[in-house]
Amino acid sequence: MKRFYSDVSVGQGNTVLLDGKPIKTPARATLVLPTRALAEAIAEEWRGLGEEILPAAMPLTKFANTAIDRVVGREGEVVDQIMAYTNDLVCYRAAAPAELAARQHAQWDPLLDWAAGRYAPLTTGTGIAHIKQSNEALAAYRAAVAAYDAFALTALHTAATATGSLVLALALAEGRLDAQEAFALSRLDETFQSEKWGADAEAERRAGTVLAELQAATRFMELART
Q1: How high is the pLDDT of residue 196?
Q2: Which pTM value belongs to this model?
Q3: What is the pLDDT of residues 20-33, one digit of tens each?
Q4: In whole angstroms, what is the distance from residue 65 CA to residue 24 CA?
């Protein structure tokens, strides 16, 4: 789509205006943001476009559209989706090789210790068999996730999906980790394999895309925090 506006500003109620008219979401709702900081950042995305409107260049706008059109009023459904990641990457440990198992222990255990103190302990195990978490732990993590508003849930869902881990996603939301740290922790196994056998160019390209999405989700959470 060709750029159709000249001026971008932030209006009353944390709306973003194009030539004085508020931006609409794909579902035709007015794009109303929870904070002035997020509204200013989204306005900057629209200012920074050239002659074409490129959705890929506006990740914050995309997250905001998703929050308003697909999460508001459906928060319970999104919480359920996020809770699927209590089947958490960091709970599944390698039995071998010993070097990988030691790396997982050294880098994932401090994070699980933090999560245990902040929410509830999670059970770990080796192999691929499903690890059942206690009802008490599941209730504690559900309460933590459900406390977030629609905007934070949108980004939390992306973070959990990108990392395969609710613990990593919550650590991002709580400021325990930054995006680069969470990404690196989510890829311990892949990094170990690439060190042994060499990097795959296509896998590296996909990883770069995931990191960029995780960075955008983290920034969105920070800017949307009221």
Answers
A1: 85
A2: 0.94
A3: 999 999 999 999 99
A4: 9
Pick the CATH number of 75-224 from 3.30.420.40, 3.90.1150.10, 1.10.3580.10, 3.40.50.300: 1.10.3580.10
Dump pLDDT digits (tens) for 136-172.
Answer: 999 999 999 999 999 999 999 999 999 999 999 999 9
Per-residue 3-state assignment (H helix, E strand, C coil) for the chain? CECCCCCEEEECCCEEEECCEECECCCCCECECCCHHHHHHHHHHHHCCCCECCHHHCHHHHHHHHHHHHHCCCHHHHHHHHHHHHCCHHHEECCCCHHHHHHHHHHHHHHHHHHHHHCCCCCCEECCCCCCCCHHHHHHHHHHHHCCCHHHHHHHHHHHHHHCCHHHHHHHHCCCCCHHHHHHHHCHHHHHHHHHHCCCHHHHHHHHHHHHHHHHHHHHHHHHCC
Domain 8-71 in CATH 3.40.50.1460? The answer is no
Per the CB < 8 A criterion, the answer to whether 172 and 159 are in contact is: yes
